[in-house]
Specification:
There is one protein chain. It is built from 34 helices and 19 strands. The radius of gyration is 38 Å and the shape is elongated. Helices cover 49% and strands 14% of the residues. Helix 13 runs antiparallel to helix 15. The longest helix is centred in the middle third of the chain and has 23 residues, at 355-377.
């Protein structure tokens, strides 16, 4: 494919390559069309981009080397008379900077006659965005300055306020000043080397591009976007000598029946068929100024690159999270809707190796199958059914989902049925409620990406040694789910299993994890019965209404916990999220619920539950302390009102040992805790039944009291007493005395150690306390 330089478009001839051959075409000039933005590369806030481009241009000129500036897209349209003008679709910024570079160098190096002839060619470059920009280009082409051109132009009599306010003119003058500053440091002439600054040309009518593409690629607003700068840097990196894969990417490949370097096919696809991925959603925006492709395009690429960095970076999750690349691409708390492009440094390590090829394969297939893929993502487990991979918001789970989609497209030819099977397995893995941190996201993303090697036929892959090895090295949580997926895939081979399993997976609480129903290898009939029973027990709230009204199912499960370690590890929450975790993680709970689901009827299940919650604990496991352990256990489930209070009011969810005693506590709260390993609650409750007794520490209307230290006030025989129960099971009694109009509490009597070993001892202790107040 032939390259061209600026002069070829300013009165020269270009070669248009079509599937049926090469065709020369005379071009009379360049007109930047009215639909294009102003010249942006010369703006003050584009100094970094402008500086890097000028550095590359001057380096090539001074060394006498060529510099390839990639594709310039555009239309060839009739101008005045018989002229044919080139209207850039993409490449406006590069062409304008080249025009200014040609102007500065020719001013300094050409003689008067040569300069006049050259001016005629430069005058063929024009802007149609504004009349002032058009007129300025015409005037500039015929001006001659050898130093401080920008300053002298601003002082010229003809330079009126319209020019001074035109964004294109202002940007051109700034670029001219930068070019002059660099040119002043050159030690040799540059004009002869200008022709070596070249590019490829793809006219709309010469490469079967459409007018709609013109609209798509110009749907970028008037600002020079970060995506455009990223694209330029990406193409530059692919062909750079610093890229270890540059030789591979420079190989000639066939694209559109034309041979060209591989990196140029990628560049062309970025501007053509891959734009189709994002154009429909941009076009659908109600406001004209929001019909912009780049935000969707660039945020998608950022997410893709970040995922690649996560799965290929051989470091711990903490090191990945702390890395500068992760911080840049992940955004503030995962908010990456409007990524800001700074430099290619963050992308360069990712676009090394084979990623460019894998990226190309994925994007090619996404461009073709986008709508089918979108539909396949919307399983019953998807809580945001309208979400897609380039939408404004993205969760940690959705980032893994994106990795699963691209992993499939990189590895396999798209097949809708196989892709749906893959998505079902992926959703079952990533819907896990424990994916609530970056560390968890990283771990699961690495597993899913490794699993994508077999995503072309995931059910067959489950039978391979590669899957066995992958599952073995996965984390415990993923390992269990992978084992379940393999088991279910095996059952699918037997008639009747697939539909009932998929129905069970779709239950709003189970969400893909039904391992507790598959314990002990049930027959199909047994599984169907267990699932039917489980629907009676559970809903999208957690426990179903019939088993939630007295916290019956939740209390029954607690009553079935067998030992102290189970009590201590358990999370005491009767809500949707905890039931999800219980049924996924807690092997004891899975067995208990499985056995309950085996009951013949709803009534039979209720009978078993009632029996469990109405008996005292028979738990064991503490040497010489089983009575205390059983009291702790019983206190956790026996009293319906207390259990309900812990759930509704203060969310006491963990059992902890504090100062030698066991409490049910709300983590991180200093006051929300209830002592449950002795009968202090019984003594305080009996005292509060005395006339004139009160406390602020009662747990609702229950017989339990919150706090490490509890105060009870009693009025008796005309005296006020304060009973202070300490956390070390002591009691200090104080009596009120009036002094100077204030109430002062004076020590009255103390109990160094309260006897609380049994209900009888608690009653006797209460009587002793009451008698001490006589």
């Amino acid at each position: 494919m032939k390259t061209h330089n600026l002069l070829d478009l300013l009165g020269g001839t270009i070669i248009i390559t079509t599937p049926d051959g090469d065709h020369p075409r005379k071009i009379d000039g360049i007109t930047i069309p009215i639909i294009q933005r102003d010249y942006a590369q010369g703006r003050p806030d584009e100094d970094l981009i402008r500086g890097r481009f000028l550095t590359a241009l001057f380096a090539a000129l001074e060394q006498g080397n060529g510099l390839e500036l990639d594709f310039i897209y555009g239309s060839v349209k009739k101008g005045t008379g018989e002229t044919e003008m080139f209207l850039p679709l993409d490449g406006q910024q590069r062409l304008t900077t080249l025009f200014l570079l040609y102007w500065v160098v020719s001013n300094n190096e050409l003689g008067t006659h040569e300069r006049q002839l050259f001016c005629a060619q430069l005058a063929r470059f024009s802007y149609a965005t504004r009349s002032t920009a058009r007129d300025f280009c015409q005037k500039l082409a015929h001006l001659t300055f050898t130093s401080d051109a920008a300053g002298q132009i601003r002082k010229a009599y003809w330079f009126h306020n319209g020019y001074a306010q035109d964004p294109t003119v202002k940007a051109m003058l700034r670029t001219i000043a930068d070019i002059e500053a660099r040119y002043a440091n050159c030690g040799s002439p540059l004009f002869a080397s200008l022709a070596r600054l070249c590019f490829y040309i793809l006219p709309l009518d010469g490469f079967r591009l459409t007018d709609e593409l013109y609209i798509k690629m110009n749907a970028r607003g008037k600002q020079l976007t970060g995506f455009e700068n990223f694209k330029a840097d990406l193409i530059g990196w692919m062909k750079s000598d610093e890229n270890p894969d540059a030789t591979k990417l420079a190989r000639q490949v066939s694209y559109g029946k034309t041979m060209m370097p591989h990196y140029l096919t990628i560049a062309s696809k970025i501007d053509n068929i891959w734009t189709d991925i994002f154009w429909p959603v941009a076009r659908a925006q109600p406001k004209e100024e929001d019909k912009i492709v780049d935000p969707y395009y660039f945020r998608f690429i950022n997410r893709y690159v970040l995922n690649e960095f996560i799965v290929r970076y051989d470091r711990s999750a903490a090191q990945i999270e702390a890395s500068e690349t992760f911080t840049q691409l992940y955004g503030d708390k995962g908010s990456d809707a409007s990524p800001r492009y700074r430099e290619f440094t963050y992308y360069r390590p990712v676009f090394s190796g084979d990623f460019a090829g894998r990226f190309e394969r994925a994007m090619d297939q996404l461009a073709i199958h986008q709508e089918s893929i979108r539909a396949a993502l919307n399983t019953s487990l998807n809580s945001t059914p309208n979400w897609f991979i380039y939408d404004e918001s993205i969760s940690q789970v959705q980032r893994i989902l994106l990795a699963a989609v691209t992993g499939y497209l990189e590895e396999h030819t798209y097949d809708i049925q196989k892709f749906k099977e893959w998505m079902r397995v992926v959703w079952n893995i990533i819907i896990d409620p424990d994916i609530r941190s970056i560390g968890a996201m990283v771990a699961v993303m690495k597993t899913v990406t490794s699993l994508a090697a077999g995503s072309g036929d995931i059910h067959a892959y489950f039978k391979t040694p590669e899957f066995t090895a992958l599952a073995e090295r996965s984390g415990n949580i993923q390992k269990e789910q992978l084992a379940e997926e393999k088991l279910k895939a095996g059952l699918f081979e037997n008639e009747g299993w697939e539909q009932i399993i998929k129905t069970a997976e779709a239950h709003p609480l189970f969400q893909g994890n039904i391992g507790f129903l598959l314990l002990s290898k049930p027959t199909l009939a047994e599984f169907e019965h267990r699932f039917t029973s489980s629907v009676l027990l559970f809903s999208h709230y957690g426990a179903n209404k019939a088993f939630r009204q007295d916290r019956g199912l939740y209390r029954y499960l607690i009553s079935a916990l067998p030992d102290w370690s189970a009590l201590y590890a358990f999370t005491y929450a009767d809500d949707f999220q905890n039931w999800q975790l219980i049924l996924r993680r807690n092997q004891i709970a899975k067995t208990v619920i499985n056995q309950l689901c085996a009951c013949e009827s709803k009534a039979a299940m209720q009978q078993v539950i009632n029996a469990g919650i109405n008996r005292s604990s028979a738990i064991s496991g503490w040497d010489n302390g089983n009575a205390k352990l059983r009291l702790i256990h019983t206190n956790l489930y026996f009293d319906e009102r207390f259990v309900d209070w812990t759930q509704k009011e203060n969310k006491l969810t963990k059992v902890k040992e504090l100062y030698g005693h066991r409490y049910l506590i709300r983590p991180s709260a200093w006051f929300d805790k209830v002592m449950i390993d002795n009968r202090r609650n019984e003594v305080i409750n009996l005292l509060c039944q005395q006339p004139g007794a009160r406390t602020e520490n009662r747990c609702g209307s229950t017989q339990f009291f919150w706090g490490e230290e509890i105060n009870v006030y009693i009025t008796r025989n005309g005296h006020q007493y304060l009973l202070e129960f300490t956390r070390d099971i002591r009691l200090h009694i104080k009596i009120a005395a009036e002094a100077d109009g204030l109430t002062k509490w004076t020590p009255y009597k103390g109990f160094d150690e309260l006897r609380l070993g049994s209900t009888e001892e608690a009653a006797a202790t209460t009587l002793e306390i009451v008698n001490s107040l006589e």
